[in-house]
Amino acid sequence: MNPILLIHGYSAESPNADPASVKGIYANQSTNTNLPDDLRQIYQVVEIDLSRYISLNDSVSLNDISRALDRALRQDYPSLLQTGFNVIIHSTGALVIRNWVRLFSPKPSPIINLIHLAGANFGSGWASIGQGQIARWGRFVFQDGAQRGVKVLQALELGSSDTIDLHLQLTQVGSRMLEDYGVQEYVIIGTQADPSWFEFPIRYAKEDGSDGTVRVSGGNLNFNYLSIVPNIDPQSLRWQEVQLAVANASQRAAFPSYYKIGRLSRPYYDRAEIPFAIPFECAHSGDTRGIVAGTQPKAQVQRLIQMALNTPRSSPALWAAHVNDFHNETTNTYNSARTLANPGIFKYLTEPRRQYDPHAQIIFRLRDQDDQPVPIANADIFFVSDQQTQGALPVQSLIEDTVVNDLTDNCMTFYLRVGSFNPASSPPDWEYQLGKVGNFAFEITAIDPRTNPDSPSVLYLPIRIPLTPDDLADFIQAHRTTIVDVQLLRVPSPAVYTIVPG
């Protein structure tokens, strides 16, 4: 068995760096057990190395942490780089290690198996809250003046452009995690928040489809990507055509299609699917339901970890087979979730099985043809359902949360409930909501607020992309994130530059 390196999440660092304190990061305080000892018991004799990195420091960035990890490996643990090792991460540790692979890892990587325990790959709604003044006061009072770790939280915000680029780079030919680095990844994440968190007046502590910190769709690395690009040369457009298109878009009238779908990336299509599983009664943290050391999901989580760690790099077919193995574990979880008929389990829920409702995320990132950000504050993104489709469900009714990223304000995240538990069905089951949506289109318009609205110097050419239910099923799936990169055409008026006879 190759050595195992454990990497913790944001704000989990122990007050001190001595071995006993660091071991406590991965411990269940109620039972006095811990993940390192559990792993040693399973594998008898195995080298396990425990990480401790600083996240609660406003001057430390994700790149700083990954760079410090690289130095620690090269100077203190070169044997790991030489012999190869496995990695188990929790939460923010996902960004730390994936960023290390991107910046420093050779090809093939010394990492053999990388196991994500509730990896915050596409962020957490808590990150923006953690940067607020209330969080700052709380840290000052209750954590001896600890800083908030603003730069790390910025990487963790929903819709972080830098974080999106991190994951996209690791899907590019030549930099793919499996095909080029040889890293076999696995995703394990719960969808049942701890009941005690329901007392917080914050949606991210108790939203359905989440473990109370990270959304299932935000942890799953089987994400979709598509780009929306122009299908015309804007220099060929007459100014009057641009003005008419902008006017028609504002009135929801017809206008020509000036855009098309460009690059498309998704599992099965251009990269392998990553084994993904949802354990039963599993939350982000805590001694009872926590994914790292909680007593409730412990057996199932450790079974999944053992399955992953027993997969040598020389057996890619076995790794691929774990997609079905992990899927079967998720199926077992949903079969067990049907037994959660007693709402007393969650004193603030009337139907606890709704926590298992499958959700999806869509992240839009808007830029112009010069790669300059187009702030969401200056744009509108509409999901427009075809009202002529009788009995169809409006796609807007599935949207439960929208977030504009604080730092990269050209990124907006939509959170959709794509499946809903129906206790009245026979047998009670989760109903696929996306299948009830008819034809629709998403429309994007934007303005430059500095231009004169009565006589604009520049206009953005609007977008309308029609989608059928089949298109929707291709782009949006349960428990997954879809990233949509949009290139809006910015067109100057003839008055910006005039040539006249001399």
List the helices and strands and how they pair.
Elements: E1 4-7, H1 19-24, E2 27-28, E3 33-34, H2 35-43, E4 48-50, H3 62-76, H4 78-83, E5 85-90, H5 93-104, E6 111-117, H6 126-130, H7 133-142, H8 150-156, H9 161-169, E7 184-188, H10 216-219, E8 224-230, H11 239-250, E9 259-265, E10 276-277, H12 298-309, H13 316-337, E11 359-368, E12 379-385, E13 399-404, E14 411-417, E15 419-422, E16 429-432, E17 440-446, E18 458-460, E19 463-467, H14 469-475, E20 481-488, E21 490-492
Parallel strand pairs: 1-4, 1-5, 5-6, 6-7, 7-10, 8-20, 11-20
Antiparallel strand pairs: 2-3, 8-9, 11-14, 12-17, 13-14, 15-16, 17-19, 18-21
Helix pairs in contact: 3-5, 5-9, 12-13
State mean pLDDT (0 to 100 scale). Answer: 90
Strand content: 15-25%
The CA-CA distance between the termini, in Å, is 82 Å
Annotated CATH topology of the largest domain: Rossmann fold
Strand order of the largest sheet: 4-1-5-6-7-10
Q: Quick one: overall form? A: globular
Helix proportion of residues, in percent?
A: 25-40%
What's the helix count?
A: 14
From the alpha carbons, calculate the radius of gyration and give it in angstroms: 24 Å
Total count of strands: 21
How is the main sheet built?
Answer: 6 strands, parallel
CATH architecture of the largest domain: 3-Layer(aba) Sandwich
